Amino acid sequence: MTKGRRVLVTRAAHQAGRLSEALRARGLEPVEVPVLSIEAPADCSALDEAIRSIASYDWLILTSGNTVRALVDRAAELGLSLALVAALQQVAAVGSATARAAEKAGLKVALVPETYVAESLVESLQGQVFQKKILLARAEVARDVIPDALRAAGALVDVVDAYRNVLPAAAPALLRAALEEGIAAATFTSSSSVTHLASAAQAAGIDFPFDGVKAISIGPITSETLRNAGWELAAEAVPCDIPGLVEAVNRIVNPA
Predict the structure, then answer these.
(1) Is the pLDDT at 142 greater than 70, yes or no?
(2) DSSP string covering 107-173, please?
């Protein structure tokens, strides 16, 4: 496989498989360099309290499959079933993959926005949240678009950190090896994948962005983070999901 068909996959190790398999199906060579590792919050007290009282909320908003996994795992640590304690509320999921993860965990998803970004979720919930109590579970560092907009619409919003993204210790060395062999394009599935790849590059003594490597983003927020980091996009996924990302990579790396 030549450099021209090698594609950097930056997703967490437990999530990379689906993207890598889809790239292989297009005749591309995925090069996995996980720059994210999902860990529990340093202090789980707020998360534990939210899980124990989750049935008191009108809505549970899930922002990613990682959020679902974190809630399920923590509920199990507490000797609880997330599906049982959340049975009385409505669930909103940002994206079909998050919805599938939630349903696999036994949750019934009532709302998935038309596009898989925070702004679309807020728009979909308009008119349904006035004086409603909402639990938003998300990553430790995340934008405040959803809670700010929902509060402006009259909702009572509690935000809880379900997990945190950390940079794996092996990432700098893996990145150095990948770039030495050559990379045609790099895929980004979140803003965190951009910032963590930049951190891995810094730790490895590599200039960021990477010269001659095409950046392909899953959606507008990730694209904005790339531009802010000085990396102009080659393409953005439409729709904003893994199949859309694979199509975007294929257009750029395998032009007709």
Answers:
(1) no
(2) PPEEE--SSSSHHHHHHHHTTS-TT-EEEEEEESS--SHHHHHHHHTT-EEEEEEEEEEE--TTHHH
User: How far from each other are the two terminal CA atoms of the chain, in whole angstroms?
Assistant: 19
Give CA–CA dist 80/76, Å, rounded: 5
- The whole-number pLDDT of residue 149 equals 85
If we measure between CA atoms, which residue out of 107, 77, 116, 91 comes closest to residue 218?
A: 116
pLDDT at 143 over 80: no
At 191, list the tokens.
């803003």
State CA 153 to chain mean position distance: 25
Neighbours of 2 (CB within 10 A): 8
Calpha distance 47→182 (Å, rounded): 42
117 CB neighbour count, 10 Å cutoff: 19
| Model confidence at 1: pLDDT above 50 | no
Please say if the pLDDT value at position 239 is more than 90: no
Q: Which of 255, 251, 249, 256 has the alpha carbon at shortest distance from 183?
A: 249
Task: Find, among 146, 138, 162, the residue nearest to 44 by Cα.
Answer: 162
CA 29 to chain centre: 22
3-class secondary structure, 63 = coil
For 123-136, the pLDDT digits (tens) are 788 778 889 999 99
Would the pTM of this model clear 0.85, i.e. be above it?
Answer: no
Interval 17-43 mean pLDDT: 94
Specify whether the CB–CB gap between 183 and 247 falls below 8 A: no
- In DSSP terms, 137 is beta-bridged to 62, 160
In the beta sheet, which residues pair with residue 256?
none
